[in-house]
């Protein structure tokens, strides 16, 4: 192996190790330590509940709190469908700290797998090479860029599960590229543990009247509902939706719109919550439907890349809440779009896209918006990214 490659690999291992090490060393010292609160406690508690045979109480926030208090202060609740809790059951056989470390390693493996698939099926390395002006780039640098992306790092630090969604959407992209819409729909349904980021994408395919995709989606969705019933009992079909309809529960769940980098958050930020809920809800709904309709209209079957990228961004913008860690999903459409432009040698001649990427990939900007409690403002560059992709998709047939 050439010395230059050895140096690059060593640098990648060092950076990745430093990132994971920082997460582990900043882990709370004990269950009373409130200096750093991690979301992994809610997943660990949900896994324990299922393991101890009380899965029927997953929708009971008081029971959740009892299990969480055994390992950490309560600051968030498990709001995913019951089927995802099964994923965390194996981690409960470890101590809380060890389980967190194991989850980090697992998440890193998922991120690396998604990065490898993206590298193999897009021109993202060519795009990175153009941005670095010919400096050699490889998978190691791609992984570092993915890991140090502020939303991804936030996901790792608090033990969230957003990298799973990145992997699922990557697999959906590969299936659509191969024309396997039935399988793509089934793969998308696997992401229903974050249904607010999946249903908008499915609605786009409903607008496109793609029955095969919707059939695959519905089939796996039905299977996951069945698994949830087996985990939590038939009552979950009523108790789970009631959590989101109960106003007292919503206050405890922490769906703060000022932290949501989507249309809902931006509307709240502009109006500062002065509009009646019905009015703001109608505005958000109208804008969301318009975005999804536009995405469906610009999608071309022979140009999956740009249509898919616009659809992923639209799903983030129209989902009920898109917190900082959810934006790690942007890595996929950004890699696809930059790769497509690099292939046409027009990447560096697109200053708008370059400016958007600078804003998105500068960690201090994310940190400042979170501290100022206006992270919803991050919706602006995401909307600009969506607009840029739509323009490229509309312009492309004319160019060809």
Describe the structure.
The protein is mainly alpha-helical and 400 residues long. The protein has one domain. Helices cover 69% and strands 0% of the residues. Helix 10 packs parallel to helix 12 and helix 15 (263-271) packs antiparallel against helix 16. The mean pLDDT is 89.
SSE layout and pairings?
Blueprint: H1 3-25, H2 40-51, H3 61-68, H4 82-88, H5 96-121, H6 124-131, H7 139-148, H8 150-158, H9 162-177, H10 181-189, H11 199-207, H12 211-232, H13 236-245, H14 247-253, H15 263-271, H16 277-298, H17 304-318, H18 331-343, H19 351-360, H20 363-371, H21 379-399
Helix pairs in contact: 1-7, 1-8, 2-3, 2-4, 4-12, 5-7, 5-9, 6-18, 9-10, 9-17, 10-12, 11-16, 11-17, 15-16, 16-17, 17-18, 17-21, 19-21
Q: Give the helix tally.
A: 21
Principal-axes shape call: globular
Query: Runs with pLDDT <50, length 5+?
Result: none
Q: Give the fraction of residues assigned to helices.
A: 55-70%
Q: Provide the gyration radius in Å.
A: 21 Å
Summarize the structure.
Helices cover 69% and strands 0% of the residues. It is mainly α and 400 residues long.
Keywords:
400 residues; mainly alpha; 21 helices; globular
């Amino acid at each position: 192996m050439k010395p230059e490659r050895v140096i690059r690999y060593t640098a990648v291992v060092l950076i990745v190790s430093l990132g994971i090490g920082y997460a582990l060393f900043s882990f709370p010292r004990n269950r009373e330590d409130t200096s750093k609160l991690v979301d992994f406690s809610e997943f660990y508690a949900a896994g324990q509940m299922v393991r101890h045979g009380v899965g029927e109480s997953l929708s009971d926030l008081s029971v959740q709190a009892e299990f969480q208090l055994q390992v950490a202060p309560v600051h968030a609740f498990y709001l995913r469908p019951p089927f995802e809790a099964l994923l965390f059951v194996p981690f409960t056989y470890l101590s809380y700290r060890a389980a967190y470390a194991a989850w980090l390693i697992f998440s890193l493996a998922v991120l690396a797998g998604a990065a490898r698939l993206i590298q193999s099926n897009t021109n993202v390395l060519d795009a990175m090479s153009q941005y670095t002006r010919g400096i050699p780039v490889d998978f190691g640098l791609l992984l570092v860029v993915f890991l140090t992306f502020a939303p991804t790092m936030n996901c790792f630090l608090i033990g969230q599960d957003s990298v799973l969604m990145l992997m699922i959407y990557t697999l959906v992209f590969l299936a659509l590229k191969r024309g396997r819409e039935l399988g793509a729909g089934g793969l998308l349904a696997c992401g229903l543990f974050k249904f607010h980021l999946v249903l908008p994408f499915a609605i786009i395919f409903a607008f496109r009247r793609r029955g095969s995709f919707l059939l695959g989606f519905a089939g796996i969705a039905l299977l996951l509902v069945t698994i949830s019933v087996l985990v939590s009992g038939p009552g979950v079909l009523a108790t789970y939706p009631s959590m989101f309809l109960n106003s007292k529960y919503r206050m405890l769940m922490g769906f703060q719109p000022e932290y949501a980098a989507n249309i809902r958050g931006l509307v709240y930020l502009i109006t500062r919550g002065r509009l009646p809920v019905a009015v703001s809800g109608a505005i958000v709904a109208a804008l969301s439907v318009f975005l999804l309709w536009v995405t469906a209209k610009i999608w071309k079957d022979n140009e999956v890349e740009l249509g898919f990228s616009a659809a992923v961004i639209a799903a983030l913008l129209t989902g009920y809440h898109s917190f900082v860690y959810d934006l790690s999903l942007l890595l996929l459409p950004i890699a696809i779009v930059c790769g497509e432009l690099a292939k046409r040698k027009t990447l560096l001649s697109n200053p708008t896209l370059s400016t958007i990427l600078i804003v998105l990939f500068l960690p201090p900007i994310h940190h400042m918006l979170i501290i100022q409690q206006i992270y919803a403002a991050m919706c602006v560059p995401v909307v600009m990214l969506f607009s840029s992709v739509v323009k490229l998709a509309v312009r492309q047939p004319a160019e060809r």
